[in-house]
Amino acid sequence: MTSVPIIDLGAARAGNREALDRAALQIGRAAETTGFFVLTGHGIDPVATRRLRAEARAFFASPGDVTNSCRLRPDAYRGFAPLASEALAVTIGAESPPDLRELFNIGPLDAPDSSTVPPQYVGHYAANSWPDALPEFRAAMERYYVEVVDVTHLVTRLFALALDLPEHHLAALWEPHSMNLTVSRYPSVVECPPVTGQLWAGPHTDYGTFTLVARDVGSGGLQIRTDGEWSDVPLVADSLTVNIGDMLQRWTNDRWHSTMHRVVPSAEPGDPLDRLSIVAFHNPAPMSVVEPLSTCVSDDVPSRYPAISAGAHLDKKLGLQRTAQ
Q: Quick one: CATH architecture of 6-324?
């Protein structure tokens, strides 16, 4: 079975230098092998996580006039996407039935000055859409967003150290970030029995720099593909599952891996439980230039990728994702 390491950030978060270096080494090894690792001691208040789960379930259980009041907009990936309206597999050129999930997505809470953002990338900092009837849902989303951003700051430092860069080098490249926070609900196999070939989320790689997922308990769930085989990612209580995204693979010149993964439905035919994942997609500023880092290029390993803006890369992938609607 593929080994996904479990890394405790408690001491590193407290500022212990030895712990920072140790965590950076562990993360670097994971990024070079599976591209996945599990973080404990990350510092997100479990109360904030539980509250968001409860409020998100209340949102998804709301009448259609509430959920449809904040449907995904054509100008920005913000708001509610209904069940089976997207297919992630199309982003890797595969065909599949629509994914059995519904989701709600927000972006940055504070946008940079519009004069600093090229017009084609304004949508990456667009205002969020909210259901007016559920103010507690908004409060829970915003609280969790603030807490998970703090985790991304530490992880970004550890990435830089793992790549033999000054510890704030990547933060300088990536700010002002355009991170998305998504709550995804996967209906139970009783509520929505999958048709042949249908998954909760089809096979794909993530588009941005890295992703942090607070996963739900239960059967079925996250799998990764390594060495031609699918294997389960361990589910650890109160942890975050982290994976490398496509842009970070480009930045590291394929030293780190953006690994194919999927979310499979429960294999228990009578399982009545749905699942709800809280997913933070760390994306850099859309103006950032994605090109191999100096420490990942040498005479023996020349640059494998041309430069591309982060915004252009993300827009292409999101456009493909939405073709299932």
A: Sandwich (2.60)
